[in-house]
Amino acid sequence: MIELLYIIVVTFAIALIAFIGIFTLLLKEKLLNKILLILVSLSAGALMGGAFLHLIPEAVEKSQGTDIFLFVLVGFILFFVIEKVLHWRHCHKGKCDVHTFTYMNLVGDTIHNFIDGLILAASFVTSVELGLTTTIAIAAHEIPQEIGDFGVLIYGGFKKKKAIILNFIVALTIVIGGVIGYFISKSVESAVTFLLPFAAGGFIYIAATDLIPEIKKELDFKKYMATLIVFIIGILIMWFIKLYFSH
């Protein structure tokens, strides 16, 4: 049972990273508006980097003859369908108070956090040392992603306090994933094999069809280049984490 205690403590600690968005509450509205597109760019880069550098390679490593890339496509298509449903339900006559890509981001983040919880559970059940190493890796990639996610929610129309609360609620799914992962630790490996590429497809969809088109709307060349550089930085951060923190 000591493993379960470790899992609950570390997953809750990682969920608290969602509150990193509180620091933006200290920023003046005018300054926050100026950096929102930068945060969206960071999120897009982190999502693409997370999908191609973390989720897909890990799924391929865990798979045993499973067609991982088919599940990536299934994830991509399913997120496309989900977004269409959200658009039909929330955007009547072309009017949206909150853009549907914010809901998509929340859905994608929920799945991702749940998977992280499963991975952490499997790691701690194997050994405490592996669990702690995995905790560092997951916490490291959550920081830039949570900052970017908060920016996406604000950019999409949510109020700052609501964005922080939603981010934290979604972040708590890592605790749920961790607890469930502990009790189904024998079968968690096969579950993760299917969920990782599915989440990767969702990440690619959100970044490629929702966030990057928002970045492309910037007409000022210098500002556009700044967002492009931040997008690449988001990818490089994920690459750095893969090199130095992945077990």
Structural write-up:
The chain has 247 residues and is mainly α. It has one domain. Helix 2 packs antiparallel against helix 8. The chain is globular and about 55 Å long. The two termini are 24 Å apart. The model has no long low-confidence stretch (mean pLDDT 82).
List the helices and strands and how they pair.
Elements: H1 2-15, H2 29-62, H3 68-90, H4 100-126, H5 128-156, H6 160-171, H7 173-183, H8 188-216, H9 221-244
Helix pairs in contact: 1-4, 1-5, 1-7, 2-5, 2-8, 2-9, 3-4, 3-8, 4-5, 4-6, 4-7, 4-8, 5-6, 5-9
Number of domains: 1
Strand/helix succession: HHHHHHHHH
Average pLDDT score? 82
Helix content: over 70%
**Low-pLDDT ranges:** none
Question: Which term fits the overall shape?
Answer: globular
Q: Give the N-terminus to C-terminus distance in angstroms.
A: 24 Å
Count of individual beta strands: 0
Helical stretch tally: 9
Radius of gyration: 18 Å
Could you describe the largest sheet, including whether it forms a barrel? none
User: What class would the helix/strand composition place it in?
Assistant: mainly alpha
**Portion in beta strands:** under 5%
